[in-house]
Amino acid sequence: MPTHKAVAATGLDTIAEVDLLTPSPGAGEVLVEMKYAAFSPVDAYQVDNGFLLRDSDYPHVLGFAGAGIVHEVGEGVEGLKGGDRVCFP
């Protein structure tokens, strides 16, 4: 299975670049090659205070708002195809 890089909280008050397995999208899911990611105040609060995180939640990937290019779509996805540019909150 291929891997990708992600920015993640790896512990309380610690951020690092990590390598993660890249799953294929399931039904109703879209795999996006991220070009830009945004961190929200909630991301910062999670890093600084462990907000809503348990020890078993690390590494916790940050920055779910962003923009990129659709790489692959799962079964049942309509209106998107590989190569489409997308942004999401």
List the helices and strands and how they pair.
Blueprint: E1 3-11, E2 14-21, E3 30-38, H1 41-49, E4 60-61, E5 65-73, E6 85-88
Antiparallel strand pairs: 1-2, 1-4, 3-5, 5-6
Radius of gyration over C-alpha positions, nearest whole angstrom:
14 Å
Largest sheet: 3 strands, antiparallel
Low-pLDDT windows of residues: none
Strand order of the largest sheet: 2-1-4
Structural class: mainly beta
Strand content: over 45%
Overall mean pLDDT: 95
C-alpha termini separation: 28 Å
Q: Give the overall shape.
A: elongated
The percent of residues in helical segments reads 10-25%
State the helix count: 1
- Strand element count: 6
> N-to-C SSE series?
EEEHEEE
Provide a descriptive summary of the structure in words.
Strand 1 (3-11) and strand 2 form a beta hairpin. The strands form two sheets. The chain has a three-stranded antiparallel β-sheet. The longest helix has 9 residues, at 41-49. The chain contains one helix and six strands; from the N terminus they run βββαβββ. The protein is elongated and about 40 Å long. The protein is mainly beta and 89 residues long. It has one helix spanning 41-49; strands at 3-11, 14-21, 30-38, 60-61, 65-73, 85-88.
